Amino acid sequence: MAPGHVAYGLRAQYGLTVAPETVMAWERGEISPTSAELTALAGVLWCAPGELLAEPVTLREHRIARGLAPDDLARRIGLETNSYQKMEDSGRWKGNERQSAALASTLGLTLAQFVTATGKQQELAEVLRNAVTTRWQAYGKPLAKLLPVPRANLDRVLEKMHGEYQSLMVATLSWGGGGGAGATGDAGREYLAEIVDRFWAVAGGAG
């Protein structure tokens, strides 16, 4: 269907006034349709809304891919619809540990997808950097608040990563004035820069 045909279908079948240029912008990924527009678009094209999305990234995209309305998802995770909608619109998840676990389960999110969808990438990186550079035991609880994972599992990952980073630092000192990445601290800086990726690798939660 040409953009003009799609625009006509949206207007005729759903009462939505959408210009053909807007349909073209949707196709190019320059802008995204609203939930109502996406549902109507799927109706015009005879497909499910999730089929029109690329790999979902945001909470909204994951919800739509699962075919859930905001009130349905909110009810399943134990939130008021308005409270959930505010979090989805802002891209900042503020649910408690139980609600986070329910969200991940209902939407079928991996740990990496959960962190991205809830806007917690920077917060996760900060907790991990603090954990490996100081006393990791102090950061199990903050990490458990970020991720719907049993505390004991997270503690094991933090302990391992702390050991890895501290080994790099010991190697740096043992090099003394010699050459190599260990001598300059490059290895330690690189570890901290890529700490979230390393976390997924150790936790087995990437992808």
Give your account of this protein's structure.
With 207 residues, this protein is mostly helical. 68% of the residues lie in helices and 0% in strands. It is built from 14 helices and no strands. It has helices at 3-14, 20-28, 35-44, 59-65, 70-77, 81-90, 97-107, 111-117, 121-133, 140-146, 151-175, 181-184, 186-193, 195-203. It is elongated, with a radius of gyration of 22 Å. The two termini are 34 Å apart. The model has no long low-confidence stretch (mean pLDDT 84).
Please give the structural blueprint:
Blueprint: H1 3-14, H2 20-28, H3 35-44, H4 59-65, H5 70-77, H6 81-90, H7 97-107, H8 111-117, H9 121-133, H10 140-146, H11 151-175, H12 181-184, H13 186-193, H14 195-203
Helix pairs in contact: 1-2, 1-3, 5-6, 9-10, 9-11, 10-11, 11-13, 11-14
For the sheet with most strands, the description reads: none
End-to-end separation: 34 Å
Shape: elongated
Low-confidence stretches: none
Strand coverage percent: under 5%
- Give average pLDDT, whole number: 84
Q: Would you report the number of β strands?
A: 0
What count of helical segments does DSSP give?
A: 14
Radius of gyration: 22 Å
| SSE class | mainly alpha
**Helix proportion:** 55-70%
Elements, N to C (H/E): HHHHHHHHHHHHHH
List keywords for this structure.
mainly alpha, 207 residues, elongated
